[in-house]
Amino acid sequence: MSSETAEDALTSVFVIRPDLYKAIAFDGKSSFPPSANLLAEYWENMTVERAFLARVYVDHCIKNKDETIMEDVLPTVSDLAFRIQEEYNKLEETFVTEDEDELAERSFIVGELMRLAVNMDYTDQFGRSTMFQHAREFPLA
């Protein structure tokens, strides 16, 4: 699954419509109209699209040095570590079913969340140790 073109398109939307970029929240506190509100369950019901949006959003925040916005919309490092672990467990379960489409989707989600994790703030000792412990448990492919 290649996402370079989609990433460029989404980044262009963020540049052209900074009001949309600044309105996004992944915790249910979005300033979008209620019908378009990204619910608190955003992180609990991860999809390819949600993982992709979150990762591109964070990359855009970093590129524009909007770390305050980024911190306001993302889960804590420890919450993200548990989310990655849960998604990784789903990926492992998919190996048993041998469903290639599901395997590609689960792999993409885990990859995007891990790319997102690289840019998190690791000053919190608990979050840092939780993430590192989970990362050590992943087998190297």
Structural overview:
The protein is mainly alpha-helical and 141 residues long. It has seven helices and no strands. The chain has helices spanning 4-16, 18-23, 48-63, 67-73, 77-97, 100-118, 125-137. The protein is globular and about 45 Å long. Mean pLDDT is 79; it is low at 30-39.
Give the number of DSSP strands. 0
* Rg over alpha carbons: 15 Å
Principal-axis shape equals globular
**How many alpha or pi helices?**
7
| Main beta sheet | none
Strand content: under 5%
Give the overall pLDDT as a whole number: 79
What is the element layout, followed by pairings?
Blueprint: H1 4-16, H2 18-23, H3 48-63, H4 67-73, H5 77-97, H6 100-118, H7 125-137
Short summary:
The chain is mostly helical.
